[in-house]
Records
---
Amino acid sequence: MTLLFLGAVILMTDPVKRIIDWQISLSPYALLRKLWLYPPLEVFIMVYMFNYTNVDAFIAGTDAKMRIEEVGPYVYQEVLSNHNVTLNEANNTITYTPRREYIFVRDRSVGDPKLDRIRAPNIPYMGVSTQAAKLSMFAALGLSAVTKRLNAQPMLEISVHDYMWGYEDHLVHLASKFVPSYINFASFGIMEKLFREGNESNVFNMHLPERKDSHGVNLPDSPRAYSLHSINGERGFTRWGYDEATNGTRCNRFWGSHDATLFPRDMNEEDTFYIYRRTFCRLLQMKFNRTLTYKGQDAFEYTMDPNVFDSELENVNSSCFCKNNHCLKRGMGSVGPCYYNMPLAITYPHFMYADPSLLAPFDGLNPDESRFSSAVLLQPQLGVPLHAHVRLQANLAVGNIKFDSTMEPFENMVLPLLWVDLTIENLPVALQLLVHGIKYIFPLVQGIVVACLLLAGFYQLSTAFMLCFWSPPVGVLLKSEQGEKRASILNGLTTLGASFHKSAQDSMQPEVQKLLPPETSYKLSEV
């Protein structure tokens, strides 16, 4: 009976699910927490630079188009760790500070970025020249005089490493002296600004899995598991006009998005989610595309829409990107407010899906969907990315130019700077085993145990019923009784004979001792 009861308890309470729910959470001592603190995922950033090969001929007017050569990839492994972790029971969130390190991977790269050299746009100089057009005539003339004094040139010949991670720039150095509260750096590197800046100072607050009632149903209005609640105490992009009182719009809020490390375990084909990363200066929407099997694992594929970077005044979910009621061309997303108001914009690589006019001034750009589209494969049982390619291009959107003849050939051009491919190639073996255990092994083991307990319990119960209610046939019972009587008589006779023999022996011993001398009696007793 005990075995039957135990099997029924296991069947009704499903302890494996309870253990899995505990271990696949961010609770102290849980397995997922250990993995989340130092994620074992291998994330790579593949960087492709643009080398401008005919700068002099273009400036001189000899060539009508700029010729661009793609150089890359230069591959960096991104190593993530989460620190200063605090669980907040009051609002069911967790607070942490993510830190990312970037390690150059030489064997995956096309060359040594410290040795390879390119010609590329001078981002600080071109950015300042674009901003000068919005100043008064005297201010614009003064700024032009300063740039000439510093001998600033619109194009640099520089090593790939310095262009990515920082080089000394006289204009930036000067700006840091005059406005140190705004420009607090003396060197400039595009990858440094996009990926490293503020890397160790952002404090994230993330929702934990939804709380449930006694029936296991999510409480109403519970925020989605592992979605962001706030960053540095803010729930939206203040640079894009987020208003806490109105909760903003999808255009300028980031609460409810994901940081692309953890996703809910109950995602389905109807889900759409948003990825937050400071680099993007906006949320990237990912829509469900299909269900598939990737290297033996179940996967949901989510893709980015072709119009993910578009902005329209009439669309409340993108109008905030139109500063001063001015929207960028189709396929371009402004990120300037997040980067000192420099005229930076992101697009798909090689201006894929963008306004055709962006391609017109260049030779060497070839949009290709098979090479430049973005997709994320999620493992639904564990809620982690199995495989990912998120591909973006950083551009410098040069505007109107005033009082600067060296910049005039680049007026109103959108100059590609580099494009990156954020890649997750494979789920680590440890996570693969965990997924198989969650989906197949643990439920199978529990099922076998329950089946064995139930079978053993039913056997015991049926045996007890047979002993209580089943009587043997009369003939068998008579034979059994006769056998018992015969055995009883034989046992009685045997006992009686043994008693008689013992009594006779005891009565003869004294008589013998009386007839024999003492010595003989002693010997007989020894015998």
---
Amino acid sequence: MACMKLGSKTDAFQRRGQAWFCTTGLPSDIVVEVGEMTFHLHKFPLLSRSGIIEKLVAEASSENAEEGCLIRIPDLPGGAKTFELVSKFCYGVKLELTASNVVPLSCAANHLEMTEEYGEDNLISQTEMFLNQVVLHNWKDSLRALQTCEDVISYADDLNIAKRCVESLAAKARTDPNLFGWPMERGGPMQSPGGSVLWNGISTGARPKHSSSDWWYDDASTLSLPLFKRLISAMEARGIKQEIIAGSISYYCKRYLPGLNRRQGAVGDSSTRLAALGSVPSEDDQKLLIQDIDRLLPAQKGLVSTKFLFGLLRTAMILKADPACISSLERRIGLQLDQATLEDLLMPTFSYTMETLYNVDCVQRILDHFLATDQTVAGGASPCSVDNGFGSLSLTPITMVAKLIDGYLAEVAPDINLKPLKFQALAAAVPEYARPLDDGLYRAIDIFLKSHAWLPESEREQLCRLMDCQKLSLEACTHAAQNERLPLRVIVQVLFFEQLQLRNSIAGCFLVSENLEGSRPLRGGGGLPASSEGEGWATTVRENQVLKVGMDNMRMRVYELEKECSNMKQEIEKLGRMKVSSSGAWGNAPKKLGLSFKSQMCSTQEGSVSNQTSMSGKSEKTKARRRKHKKNQ
């Protein structure tokens, strides 16, 4: 730390309890009270340097001419500690100006009117020269001087000292400190003129690591919140990138909010150091910090991580921050919800008025903010995927959010206190086009029904209407067809659409087989060697055999499904005949349960028979071709 030496006399000041004495051999003729400390000094050295002390002495002498002179300076910047240095300067005693004491000394000198009118090279001029020529040219000294402005902030603002320190730091934050060799709080290796690292004054030949744009984060985090806000504002005015400023704010929060560090890891053991020094902010201070940081964060999307925003929101809820702050954080998260993880969404309920284990209402509001943003997809791409520029499709944000919400529903579904309406509202908030498949939603509904076994049939059917049976995969259809927790109507619909999927798969297999047979090269027509033709024919035969096995398996599955549907239809009709005298509601049971597909199922059976016939005919054709091929060989 740079310093400037003033005075040449030896120190003649002695402290006795709460009093200072100047032992120059002459009796004291003036007593100065500064706070709880008294200074027994002499008039001449003080009057020759300070205009205020001259006025106070004149007033005290006129009032009490016979008694000793006593003056009081209760509001001196820096208090008794600073007046001790002022007194030594007036007596010409040796002292050092440093970045730690120049600000309070400058404020005290201006308060006491220690101008050139009362003495050459007076304290005001000395402190201004040191501040402008030394302190403001050095990062570390500027930072230290700004920190000392906290105790005398009103005086420092009047003298423009705090602003000059902030501007100095903001200007230096834009520049690589390695270019100028500015000393930093975290330090660094010494370098030779050639740029290599020095060890005991000897060049090692190793090159120092270049500092990144965040080299000043740790230093800036040592400032108090009001001064840190001034520094951030000055950096924004100088055009420093928003992502760099957002990173500094994030670093500052992680240092003073222990709740963030528990989930994201401490920042350089700063929280541990603060706890060891007993300087961890109180809950009220942390609440004010979060509210100020929310206003300080840039509004641009994606500048800070979603995990960090969720940490702020969680801490704000614990500390019961202002509703406006919580709502603002929810809106920020909603803008980039597609970057969140399932762990982020699982926020416990911190209020005794809510019965659920997790804060589902908060996730609902965040999702509403996300859906309110513009989610238009450029071009004619699918609403669930976009071209990523490399010829492949990637999931859109809305699709990623839909997958995230389905996973969240599956996690909160076991909570027995979660009401069906709340579960249904969150699931229905996601647009239908956002889910390419409804497997995740089906899994969440199944878990919810398992945990809420007492729900009546009507509420179960209402929940199952959330999913589209046509958008279930074959595996999900197979599971749902055997799921006893689902209503009967849903099971019938699942079986029907599973049958359709299998029919489409069989039709696709036949189409592939016909294409393979049609693409077989004719003998002697393609100009290919006999060996190549024989190898191609053998490959085609093997592929046909594999397809035949797959089609046989699918045919068996279709037959089982048709048989199961037929049995269920008979049971439903039997129940309808038994209860036909009640209200007539069961008379339309087949239609309500989706059994208006009788013609489709019959056509399915007929189709399967015709498929079997066509398959047997094609098999005979294939065998005939093989015999003809062997004879030709």
---
Amino acid sequence: MAATTARISSSVSRPTTPLHPTPPPPCCSFLPKTLPKPSSLSLSSSSSFTAHSHTPISSFFSDDDCSSDEKPREECGVVGIYGDPEASRLCYLALHALQHRGQEGAGIVCVHDNLLQSITGVGLVSEVFNQSKLDQLPGDLAIGHVRYSTAGQSMLKNVQPFVAGYRFGSVGVAHNGNLVNYGALRAMLEDNGSIFNTSSDTEVVLHLIAISKARPFLLRIVDACEQLKGAYSMVFVTQDKLVAVRDPHGFRPLVMGRRSNGSVVFASETCALDLIEATYEREVDPGEVVVVDKDGVQSLCLMAHPEPKQCIFEHIYFSLPNSVVFGRSVYESRRVFGEILANEAPVECDVVIAVPDSGVVAALGYAAKAGVPFQQGLIRSHYVGRTFIEPSQKIRDFGVKLKLSPVRAVLEGKRVVVVDDSIVRGTTSSKIVRLLKEAGAKEVHMRIASPPIIGSCYYGVDTPSSEELISNRMKVEEIREFIGCDSLAFLPFDSLQGMLGTQAPNFCYACFTGNYPVEPREDKVKRVGDFVDDGMTGNFDSIDGAWIPANRIHKHQRDNEFEGSVL
């Protein structure tokens, strides 16, 4: 398939000063600290390179698929590496570890010979990159990104990291999150002459950096971020700097670690650090900007930040169980969720099973507390993509059956407790219950390791509109009847907060309460048929989305105030 190329040049010279170790400074100081010297730091300047983009999307979609109202999508993972001669390869491996955060696009930008070189593509990390592509990304400074998105002709152009040149050089950025004032910022920039190449909210950040009057570059980032509202954990790269930024509420995770040769690593989750043998040091704090260059590591508070509001769904569903997120073990959180369910919603049963993979750890906790054996009653196929060919004679619950297979020997004649992480629309849950009963389960009792979801997320999680959320439309007993299970219980919200203890105020629960730390200005709705519900229904053709004006009553009361408060 064809590749497109674009040269990116810069007048900024790459510093070559050696690095030396000193102890780390406290968060939010602006004091430099230097790093241990890497074992071999490659700063070759013998040749020029071009940026490459892998472009397979044209083989899947026609020109007619282009939407006239493209809007940003979410659910991403980011990584940044400074000071390692194999930065792009380590970035590649770290993105593998973060693949669960986005499966439809991946990219890496590295710095070599004062040029930012980029390779991006549609697909899994292993599909976008191979040995020859990584050979085109030399250098000791790199950032990477994996993304979830919807299908369409313009999908490739939205794959990050983005690279842009402006009068003081070039900058690359990878972003995890979602900006709730994206529409207003873009409109303001376009009114002032900015031209956009993508439909991603991340591009707004690059435009804000370019038009900023602040000096030096670090303060341009601060100036840009002060205009953003919503969730953003970002890594930036210039010819000589790696910069990590987290929004003042800290919605999305971002951690910092070091490898044994002194190179610095930023990543969305600690599982990425583990794979490339980097030692976890700390989180990037909410509202913090961390800069890594030849002088070491510098930390600056972005702005006076309010109480942290970290996404609780990182612990419920998104992060891998082996990660430490917001200072807590994801595995331990999910295990305790299951124990709480066993204590507060017990039921006579013969076996406990999980909806794999995200329900497994909570099911283990439930089984251990209830004194009932845990078994694999559902086997998940990891080899089914998002497109498939269904036979002309329709198979009921075809999408679920492709991905989940019941084990009759475990289920037949048994009273079964099935633990899942959440219920969104309820359609997949109803199919799972039917699947279990068809396999011979005598009773099916659903236990959900999260409170009922009643509100959409606007901070980087792809959820449907509140009207489509079953818990926003039905009471628990009504949901039970809809799903067809014998009993249904959710993790009580008060118990969730009790488990978090003194950290409870530091989490965002908007999807459970409808109380938003940053008021959404634009509401996202997803068309029926996409696979928000655990990715088990639909195909590429059925994925789409749009943004519409918020339909909340109080939104109209804020319109006039909002129009004048963008900057």
